[in-house]
Amino acid sequence: MKHFLLLFCLFLSCYTSKKPTIPDYLALLHEGKTIRVNILGDSLSQRSRAFGLQDKLGSSYLVFDYSVEGRNVRDWFFDVNVVLQSRADIILIELGTNDAMSLSSEEYKYYILELIQYIQKRSSAKLVLSTAPLSNMQSLWDVIRTNNSFIRSLRTDHTIIELENVLIDKEGFSFYPLDDPIHPYPAGYEVLGEVLRKELLSLR
What we know:
Layout lengths: L1 H13 L7 H9 L4 E7 L1 H5 L5 H5 L3 E5 L7 H5 L3 H4 L5 E5 L2 H6 L2 H18 L3 E5 L10 H12 L6 E3 L24 H17 L2
Parallel strand pairs: 1-2, 1-3, 3-4, 4-5
């Protein structure tokens, strides 16, 4: 009996949660360790070299971009192991535009929850989700807003980065070329990257 109690006490003293908290990331920086960020996204991230986050975040971070042009959340659900093969401290999910064009909102909600649950069962990384920029295709706005509202409802369990209105035209300036309402000019990617940078650094 005494032997059992001793083992039980040792178990309690050694147990640590699999879910890292924000202070854990601060501890990594204090120890001089690099924070690894894996990005699971679409063409917005792929075309912009992960929004320039490697340069923006600096040498304390390593950014790995697994984004694939044209992918929606359902596509990623069936291929997410590609991202999980590499250890990460943070996994950023940057999706939404292709989903608005190819999935119903109900399908989107189903697959985003399935994707999140799948990742959480297999990784201790902190999960960060971004809302999708509205784009310059107004026919998509209602669906994007509906999907983004659902992402915001997950805020109690996950960090949400707000991108919905970041590229809305300001004072007559458009971030989008006339022949492409989905992919912004480099200035638009720069704005998105700055928002992401500030939010990721705030986790410290």
